[in-house]
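Why predict the complex rather than its parts? Because the way molecules touch one another can change local conformation, and only a joint prediction can capture that. The input here totals 388 residues.
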Amino acid sequence: MSERVYIFDTTLRDGEQSPGATMTPQEKVRMARQLETLGVDIIEAGFPAASDGDFESVRMIAAAVKNVQVAALCRALTTDIDRGFAAIKDAAHPRIHTFLATSELHMKHKLGKSPREVMDMARAAVSHAASLTTNVEFSAEDASRSEPEFLAAMCELAIEAGATTVNIPDTVGYAQPAEFAELIRFLLGRVKNSAKAVFAVHCHNDLGLGAANTLAALAAGARQAEVTLSGIGERAGNASLEQVVMALRTRPTYYNLETSVDSEQIYPSCRLLSRIIGMPIPPYQAIIGRNAFAHESGIHQHGMLKDRRTYEIMTPQSIGRAGTEMVLGKHSGRHALKSKVEQLNYRLTDEQIDLVFAAVKELADRKKQIYDDDVESLILENVFRIPD
Ligand code: KIV
Ligand code: ZN
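Output of the joint prediction:
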């Protein structure tokens, strides 16, 4: 029996902190509805104390979705928590998410507080949140650069004060997968009341390790992954939902973990986000990029035509894409051309295919990609040309 991992989507909060990714309240509601269809467990809708606009979009999202938890981010301050709760109180499943930094660097230089003061603040904030709802998450900001024993004490006191989820963020994307997994194992063993809460991870992508660190932490026992669609987020972004979910799905015996995400909704969700924020999905992006299911090399195309599992570890349909694309270029082989010609509804003899193949190779040296129109022109020119 595989164990369940909760998917906490923060596209509308951390994702929106991605420079240029601002969304209107209506656009956020549209995205939230799609996230509900996608099947995430928790939507972090925003940071209500940040602005009146953020408050309003969180309130609208809380009213718009029913089958998913709605979280509001709040600093560890009573005023923030009250404002956050006011925005989500009518949600079917509200969650208060409060955070406070626990690394020496942040406590000293950002907060100007001693470790003792930080502990007191966290206890007071979580207790206050727990007096408003039973669904409280506490995040130890910059956890991966915090002193592990102090971090364990912070997790323990947060759970004691009423946190049902404790989050271990790699706020600046500094952690390495094996080291981060070790930290999670250490906390699960050291925090006395760890069984009373879900341990979450929230990994940033500064070194491109967001998804790798998240997966390593899940393998080590964390049970909530905080992710964003397409990996958008502060600076280089967050661990991407599609990479984490599809890694778990593609390697079931390795992880033995499952999520409630309907993977066929992944591509439509990322496309919708891309249209809303006006940022195209890079063609080389894993899983959702244009090239992720496109094959150009002749050897690969030949393998794919015989058995798609040779070069595809998941089907495009499994993430909601139409199909595999055979791209003709200078690396393509005769088999791919033959199948393209048939797709275009031409019946050519082997000699005619040879003629068109030579013409394709010649064109591919001058042009990066060969489109269907090009192939058709080459067929007409080389096979059906009426002599002058
Ligand atoms: O990266 C981070 O530490 C955060 C927290 C607010 C969870 O976004
Ligand atoms: Zn973050």
